[in-house]
Amino acid sequence: METSDLRGSVERFASDMEKKLRANNHKGGWEHESYTYLLTRLRQEFEELTDALKDEPTAALPFEQYLNGMAECVDVANLAMMIHDNLHRQFWKHYGQVVGCGRTVTTKKAWAEDD
Asked: pTM above the 0.70 mark?
């Protein structure tokens, strides 16, 4: 899939995710973080998102509350992406294939064991 095939909402969200990641480049990467740490951070960010949306956003909210809610969504998504990226890297290291979640590769041992 090419980026031009992405839905506008996905492309906009991914762009916001990348901006946030670049703004935090000084913190280093996530490649060596434990799943426990990343999951803890994901839970914390989810709680912050929950707090940001405690007032149902069906009525007009203050400008800052919309921005805060969108920023918290990006934080949650970035942490989920970090976990996905680490899982993907570990899968590749163990099975020697880079695959997506669609499980289209069936030639490796793990996939054969599912049969």
From this structure: yes
